[in-house]
Design a protein that fits this description.
By secondary structure, this protein is mainly α. The protein has one helix and no strands. The chain has one helix at 5-45. It is rod-shaped.
């Protein structure tokens, strides 16, 4: 496996670019999840706190 310095440099830069892109996609996914969680918590806060407190089990 005899690679020139230029070929090794290109290969290393391609690997770094792929890693950077993977990290960017992961960050986007984390941001989306965080936003979804915040929206869900806001919806839960608007619910009636007494909802579900009493359950009628009489048949």
């Amino acid at each position: 496996m005899d690679m020139s310095i230029a070929a090794m440099s290109v290969s290393m830069h391609q690997g770094q670019a792929m890693q950077d892109m993977g990290m960017a996609v992961l960050k986007m996914a984390m941001d989306t999840t965080e936003t979804g969680t915040e929206e869900m918590l806001e919806q839960l806060e608007s619910l009636d706190p007494n909802l579900g407190a009493l359950v009628d089990i009489q048949a």
